[in-house]
Specification:
globular; 253 residues; alpha+beta; Jelly Rolls; four-stranded antiparallel β-sheet; Arc Repressor Mutant, subunit A; 38% helix
Length: 253
């Protein structure tokens, strides 16, 4: 008996997020990835330069640190983590990327990727060759402005990580991460209170500078306080306002 490699059943292909026939015009995430002002013919021009390969399976790399920089990538489905290897050979998670978010821009300055990118689960990405994007941006000013905005968001996310890691308590760090994912869900027009955590407790701890035991303890405490409800990787924020107060240092000290 053979097993299909298609991550979505054929009868659901019309709505399958891994469908390779998707284009920028019909993608459910185009309001996030693309400038709102793009005309139909401009979207078609952009779509012609985008490459869509087979889905990445869990654990597969999109690129490795020091690989030549040729493209940026938009996550269409699934989740990607970026990480670097420290001098003592340990993995340091530097970011998580969800559908509608763009990664790979770390390679622009030195023409090589500064980190590695690995799929946390079966994921689909759109590859956008950077040279072609630059040429197209000169013809479509709104696209160039949008790309600058994406770069600005990347800088802002780095600053948010520094701020997050400056939080004194593990509770504050984890609450801040959950609220960050919540806001990113809302930006994708999805539920801000019910979502899936694709990353492991180990990855969360690595990203936040905490041990996996501490992460598990904080999640258990949040559940006991009825701040969140967790079912495997499915999570619901029950009291997001309380979590915000905690991040601001007004609750949970």
């Amino acid at each position: 008996m053979t097993t299909s490699t298609n991550p979505c059943p054929s009868e659901n292909k019309k709505h399958c997020h891994h469908d390779m026939q998707v284009n920028c015009g019909n993608c459910r995430l185009n309001t996030i990835c693309l400038p709102i002002a793009l005309e139909t013919d401009q979207i078609d021009q952009l779509d012609k330069i985008i490459q869509r390969g087979r889905p990445l399976r869990k654990g597969e790399h999109l690129y490795h640190a020091n690989d030549p920089f040729t493209s940026v990538y938009a996550v269409r489905a699934g989740a990607i983590k970026c990480y670097s290897i420290t001098n003592d050979g340990k993995e340091q998670v530097t970011g998580f990327y969800l559908p509608g978010e763009v990664l790979g821009m770390d390679g622009i300055s030195k023409h090589r990727h500064g980190s590695s990118a690995k799929a946390l689960e079966t994921s689909a990405v759109c590859e956008i060759p950077f040279e072609n994007l630059g040429d197209l941006s000169t013809r479509i000013p709104s696209l160039q402005r949008h790309f600058f905005q994406l770069m600005s968001q990347e800088i802002t996310q780095d600053q948010e990580l520094i701020t997050l890691l400056s939080k004194n308590s593990a509770e504050q760090r984890i609450a801040a991460l959950l609220l960050s994912i919540s806001s990113r869900q809302a930006r994708r027009k999805l539920s801000a209170t019910r979502f899936r955590l694709p990353m492991s407790r180990t990855d969360i701890g690595n990203y936040l500078g905490l041990t996996v035991e501490t992460v598990s303890r904080v999640f258990s405490r949040f559940q006991k306080l009825e701040l969140i409800a967790v079912d495997n990787k499915e999570l619901e924020l029950l009291k997001p306002d309380t979590l915000r107060l905690m991040v601001d240092g007004e609750e949970g000290e």
